[in-house]
Amino acid sequence: MATTLTLISHGSTEAFRRAALPAGEPLDRFGARDCARARERLRRFDRAWVAPELRARQTAAALGIEAAVEPALRDLDSGSWAGKGLAEIAPQLLAVWLNDTAPPPHGGETVTALIARVADWMKSPIGEGHCAAVTHPAILRAAIVHAIGADASAFRRIDVAPLDAAVLSFSDRWRFRSLAPLAEPSVD
């Protein structure tokens, strides 16, 4: 069974622009504009999924991707830190969270648990052909870590921006093919 899976990171949000952890916010005007630019370059997909959060659903709609909501593609749970800017978090606690995959100080999901969740979803039969999933940067990083068989510590070494697309392929196992932007981001 040959499959290509394009994982698309949602468009930009106010939380992204102010270096804050997400908390259910919508796309900002830049994210909507960037989606409109990227829509023209997208191909059709045989099957598609979207994370349940508003920003992911808005991105899928703006890209013209009809997708089924998939709970396994939800964002990393940042617990009590949801909506907080990185500067609002105690530096020593932030350092633990950024440098360790053990239980987070915010009471949310661990990176290890996130990678396991994404790996479980990738084990399910997703079908043949070219599939897509509109989701979050953390999910793209987790999928790449899983595909290359890396340790969870590699998770924070992968940069994923709004509207980046990670392409994976599957024949006998998952392989990482590329990570690139769908459109040049708005800077104004």
Query: What is the alpha-carbon Rg in Å?
Result: 16 Å
Query: Structural class, from secondary structure content?
Result: alpha/beta
Biggest sheet details: 6 strands, mixed
The termini sit apart by 44 Å
What's the SSE pattern? EHHEHEHHEHEE
Give the mean pLDDT.
Answer: 92
Shape: globular
Strand order of the largest sheet: 3-2-4-1-5-6
Strand content: 15-25%
Uncertain runs? none
Helix fraction, binned, reads: 25-40%
Number of strands: 6
Figure out the total of helices.
Answer: 6
What does this structure look like?
This protein is α/β, with parallel strands linked by helices and 188 residues long. The protein is 31% helix and 19% strand. It has six helices and six strands. A six-stranded mixed beta sheet has the order 3-2-4-1-5-6.
Essential attributes:
alpha/beta; 6 strands; 6-stranded mixed sheet; 31% helix; globular; 188 residues
Topology record:
Elements: E1 3-9, H1 14-17, H2 29-39, E2 47-50, H3 54-63, E3 68-69, H4 91-99, H5 111-123, E4 129-135, H6 137-148, E5 164-170, E6 174-181
Parallel strand pairs: 1-4, 2-3, 2-4
Antiparallel strand pairs: 1-5, 5-6
Helix pairs in contact: 2-3, 5-6
